[in-house]
Amino acid sequence: MTKPEAMSGFEVDLTNCDREPIHVLGSVQPFGFLLAVNSDWIVVHASTSALRYLGVTVDDLLGKPLAQLLNGHALHNIRGRLQIMRGADAVERMFGVALTDGGEDFDLALHYSGRLLVIEAEPSQADALIEAASAVRSMTTRIAARPNFDEFCHEAARQVRALTEFDRVMVYRFGHDGAGEVIAESVRPGIGSFLGQRYPASDIPVQARALYERSWLRIIADVDAEVSQIIPPVSVTGEPVDLSMSMLRAVSPIHLEYLRNMGVAASLSISILRDGKLWGLFACHHYAPRHISYERRTAAELFGQLFSLTLESREREHEARRMTEARALHDRMMSAVVAAPQGADSLTPFLDDLCRLVGCDGLALWLEGRLTLRDSTPDASDVHQLIRLLRDKDTHSVFATHEIGAMLPSAAAWSAKASGLMAVPLSRAPRDYLLFFRKEEAKTVVWAGKPAKLVQVGPLGDRLTPRKSFEAWEETMRGQSRPWTPVEKSLAESLRASLLEIVFRLTDLADEERQRANQRQELLIAELNHRVRNILGLIRGLISQSKAGVGSVEEFAEVVGGRVQALARAHDQITRHQWGPGALSDLIIAEAEAYLSGKAERVRLNGAPTALAPDAFSILSLVIHELMTNSAKYGALCDARGKVTIDWARDARGDLIIDWRERDGPLVKPPTRRGFGSTIIEHSIPHDLNGEVDLDYRPEGFQARIRIPGRYVTTEGVAVSKTHARRTETPVRAPERMLVLEDNMIIALDLEDMLTRIGVKHVIVASSVSQALEYLAEEKPPFAILDVNLGAETSFPVAEALQDLGVPFAFGTGFGDSAAFPERFRDIPVLQKPYSAESVAGLF
User: Fold this and answer.
1) 830-832 and 809-813: which strand pairing?
2) Pairing of strands 762-766, 784-787
3) Chain centroid, CA 441 distance in Å
4) Does the model's pTM come out above 0.90?
5) Is domain 340-442+478-510 classified as CATH 3.30.450.270?
6) pLDDT means per 10 residues in the chain (844 residues)?
7) How many other C-beta atoms are found inside a 10 Å radius of the C-beta of residue 63?
8) CATH architecture for the domain at 737-841
9) Could you tell me where in the chain the CATH 3.30.450.270 domains are found?
């Protein structure tokens, strides 16, 4: 609303006047007078009391320029105040202004009412009160020193009573249902107390509450005083003047009757606002007519404004502390979810913290189709019914009620466990919820009279008649909980944002975990394929190498079967521990019992509990099998007297030393020929594990010392990398020399035999990348076959070296078509395990 020019007529911008008149009465209280002037500064409305105070007639007042009624000094000051007026519903005050030459001083209030300027005046009163700002500063200091809320409100009531000298001053707070309650009081002794009494919402109608939000202070000096009429009652356009912001506006006869019924002769109301909304009132009662000066009322109004700001500040500080707790809880929950995501279970450890933060008696979490209940809640079936009801309501924000029975009649049956509900939606559809519950708070409420109004024929006609009885009337409230406060609802909204973030994070983690599970499954399938191919290759090599030195089919089947069974037993023991390390003692005992039967007790074991990694376990199982077989056929275990002692221990380097000693058997002679069994014993551990084997054919008993590197004793197997198979039909001519890189000795021997049969005269076998690179540093082979996976490493460095040297080569893999190769090797031939003579020959 624009302001008038200082020395001319005033103009009002109606674009900012979007408020409808809330309370229009054509009269004012008699202790002052009112003038309403238009933009030409012509008086268009006045109170009849103005005739008395100004000593003029109606004809001298209405339609006359204001300059003919007030002296120039007063008019100049009024125009100056209008110049600084700012904001809708703004009121400017002036004290001790002489309106006429030689006349008495008046206190003025100026405000706009539509296009009219309303000037209210009342005679100045001599007041011993100190300057208003100083008084209010002292009052505010006193209330600020009170540490808790009850003392804060009680001290405020004391200060207002000391300032106004009314018989009773109450701090009157409005509840969630609109009813008012006296939460603090300062009262003259001997007239009783209203502390703790409640008043129904209808005692202060909605229109009156809206006026309290616009105008901070309202005084009724005498409920029985005759009012002063506004003349003319309506404008030339037929509209009454809006007196909503008038200090002098007369009071509704209904309200005056209400006060008379209470025995109150004078009252003063000071608004208490929170975020611009009516939080409560300072309600001041006096039991005899009482009028206080405008200056004192201004101090009371200023105190009400500062009290409101202080109250809001305290509540915001409390809310900020709660919000800080909520943020800290959010951080802890997020850290827990990120550190160890467990789906809905990730929130379970924090449910008690959530209950404490919000201030509830129980909690239900419905997330990912699972229901978790904590402390005092309805039964699971009742919670499901509540969730269905909430979904039907399509709630997209926090929903709170202190009376579940009002929305779900069946809730009355379990109101003792849960009467209040605050629902926090956690997802879209299908909607998940976090439900906070509060128990029934059955209590006796003391009303100031029975909270019901009846329509009766009263002195003012057929209308809603004010209550005549204000005697304490008790009512027991059942089926309701303590209401949820705005702070708690705000906390729930904050928690909703945090929990949504956590739920989305859990969803993302679940998606990631599903992807990782799929990848693990693919890797497992590839690994299984790789292992099966390796096993088939190994068995093929066993069969091929076991033919040498065998005299009959039966002997051949026995030899091959024993070796395969040894591998199977080792594999069973490894897989029993989910492909983890296997116990050395279990390996030896299994071989002894399986092959020696009744002779097994003649094998004695000495050593600390020791486990071997799966790859070493399989290799050693073949070695132990061959040692047991040879001992049973030719050594200490071939008769009834011999014994075998097996000792093991870790040396200074951490390597495992196994000593095999035979005694009391037949005289030992060194073998005249080397069969495949001897090859396994002597060469598998050095080749496959980079260990050592020392054999001693002493006449009194065979002895063997085996050294297995410490890394196989203390570490578990290394995960196998995924590869992808690629084939090419480009053949090369069979060379005379070839490099074979294969970490499994038996497969390497079998491949060597295949290559020899197709014309390769000299096969160089390497079991590791370092061995192969050492060989390439000395010689350049015409061709090479490289096993892709070598346990803890791949053959790609050797492949790169071969490419640099211009040597053709092929890859060998057990991963099948799922193997993945670097882009630079996409045209390299690939052999699938188990190797066959046909596939190897196809390279040349």
Assistant:
1) parallel
2) unpaired
3) 30
4) no
5) yes
6) 34 37 66 93 94 92 93 93 86 91 92 92 77 82 90 94 93 86 92 86 82 90 92 84 89 86 92 91 95 90 93 86 83 74 68 86 84 89 89 80 88 87 77 87 53 47 45 59 84 79 66 60 52 53 53 59 54 50 81 66 87 82 82 82 90 90 88 71 85 90 91 54 34 77 85 86 90 91 91 88 92 66 84 74 79
7) 10
8) 3-Layer(aba) Sandwich (3.40)
9) 340-442+478-510
